[in-house]
Write a structure and sequence with these properties.
The protein is of the alpha+beta class and 475 residues long. Among the domains are: 101 residues, no CATH class; 57 residues, no CATH class. Helices cover 47% and strands 16% of the residues. The strands form 5 sheets. A 4-stranded antiparallel β-sheet has the order 2-1-3-4. A two-stranded antiparallel sheet has the order 5-6. It has a two-stranded antiparallel ribbon with strand order 7-8.
Length: 475
């Protein structure tokens, strides 16, 4: 960084940072100061304590909670000394430590990719993919450059003239190659005019050298036309796959080194994540199919059974590992799967009922999710496709709803039958009531008739008695 920028950002730097050192000339110049990050791993001795409840904690972690442990009846057990890795980072110049930065984790977060490593006389030498192709590339560049130069100079073949031919027009002739003047003036000299010799022709050897160099580049790198997706001499799919496999095998060491570097970077991250993601937050994760999902970590919830607060998705709990798989991307595998399934279905159309949903899952189509849903629904109902957990729950809910509807229909039918019986009973009671009314009416009529007859007889007897009392004859 510049000296002025260094002074502004490191006002407390010692004067020794600006003193030239013979062995570190490239650290300090008149205009620049080299500032570096220095990482190191140190081993610290720590004491682990085993508690009576089975937990193993660091002795420093126990001190703040010793009283709580005593109240809960947890006692301290065996102890042992361990060596623990600690990461340290320093910001330095050639002669001064500018800053010590607090770090988390146990690994230096610098991930090298060595390439192909060989042991040469006891020294490990690493090289990249293109190192042995440099000579072939230089030859290719030279051949193509010379070929282009010859082609470019063809329209600029020089004229053969005498001084008398261009006398008075020297400036036009000197600027002929850079001017667009449509007229080029000259003077006849003894009846002769300027002329050009036939231009030099490009040598076929240049193109041959370029072609040979291009083949040498492919041979030294192990990357052929088939690996780049270009059309080569191979025609069948098996031949193309064989040439691609040959290129992959030639460069497997570089791929293997990259996988090791990715694994180390993942190991560094999973070592740091629990210390950095130490509070409640929502993070975004990507699945294998690159679909996003948001999950909450370190979230505190109350346990309904105990009433205590517990932390869910606690990243500090447990031990994590990493696995790296190298190969085609998910998109490439989807395309290959879709192509193979299409061929299978074309040969056996009945397979569409079994793998139709899988085919559409690997095709990036608008509305594809709806098609997959319908195909799976039909397959699950017909028993061809085994339902997943979500579909099983949906089927269970549908079955429960169907059972509820059947129960409601049965209850309704029972209610209708009970209503019919009640109606029939009411009609029977009504008929019985009518019959009883008729009987009562008949009895009343008989009583009225009997009363009328009694009244008539009483009147007749009274008349007879009156006639007897009057001495009249009784009729």
């Amino acid at each position: 960084m510049s000296v002025n920028g260094f002074v502004l950002s490191n006002a407390n730097a010692a004067d020794s940072s600006f003193e030239p050192i013979n062995t570190y000339d490239n650290w300090l110049t008149e205009d620049f100061v080299r500032v570096a990050d220095y990482w190191r791993i140190v081993l610290e001795e720590r004491t682990l304590v085993q508690l009576s409840d089975g937990r193993v904690l660091d002795e420093e972690e126990i001190e703040p909670i010793r009283d709580e442990l005593n109240l809960s009846g947890v006692t301290l057990g065996k102890t042992r000394k361990v060596q623990r890795r600690k990461l340290e980072r320093y910001k330095i110049t050639a002669a001064d430590v500018l800053e010590k930065v607090e770090c988390v984790g146990r690994y230096i977060p610098i991930i090298p990719v060595f390439g192909k490593t060989s042991n040469v006389a006891g020294r490990y030498v690493s090289r990249g993919l293109v190192r042995k192709a440099k000579d072939a590339q230089k030859l290719y560049n030279y051949s193509r450059s010379v070929s282009v130069e010859v082609t470019a100079l063809t329209p600029k073949q020089p004229y053969f003239v005498t001084p008398a031919m261009i006398k008075g027009h020297e400036s036009r002739w000197q600027n002929m190659m850079v001017s667009n003047d449509p007229v080029l003036m000259f003077n006849f000299d003894n009846g002769q005019k300027p002329f050009r010799e036939a231009p030099a022709q490009g040598s076929p050897a240049l193109m041959q050298d370029a072609q040979v160099a291009a083949d040498d580049i492919k041979a030294t790198t192990g990357i052929f036309d088939a690996n780049l997706g270009a059309q080569g001499n191979e025609t069948s799919g098996r031949a193309i796959a064989g040439r691609q496999f040959q290129g992959e095998m030639a460069n497997y060491e570089f791929q293997d080194q990259l996988v090791d570097a990715l694994e180390l970077s993942g190991r560094v991250m999973i070592d740091m994540i629990p210390a950095i993601y130490d509070t409640e937050r929502t993070i975004r994760i990507l699945g294998e199919d690159e679909r996003e999902e948001a999950i909450a970590v370190n979230k505190t919830l109350m346990d309904a059974s105990t009433g205590e607060y517990v932390q869910t998705m606690d990243l500090t709990t447990g031990t994590y590992d990493i696995k790296v798989a190298a190969g085609p991307s998910f998109t490439t595998r989807k395309q290959e799967t879709a192509e193979q399934l299409s061929q299978i279905i074309a040969q056996n159309p009945a397979m569409s009922q079994l793998v139709g949903d899988v085919l559409f899952k690997n095709l990036d189509l608008v509305g594809g999710d709806e098609v997959i849903k319908r195909l799976r629904s039909a397959g699950v109902k017909s028993g061809i496709i085994e339902p997943n957990e979500e579909e099983a729950m949906a089927m269970q809910q549908q079955l429960q709803q169907a059972q509820q509807i059947e129960q409601q229909a049965a209850q309704l039918e029972l209610a209708l039958k009970q209503a019919e019986v009640a109606t029939e009973q009411a009609e029977a009671i009504e008929r019985q009531s009518k019959a009883q009314m008729n009987t009562v009416k008949a009895a009343v009529e008989q009583m009225q008739l009997a009363e009328a007859q009694v009244d008539l007889e009483s009147k007749q007897i009274a008349q007879m008695r009156l006639r007897q009392a009057a001495g009249l004859p009784v009729i």
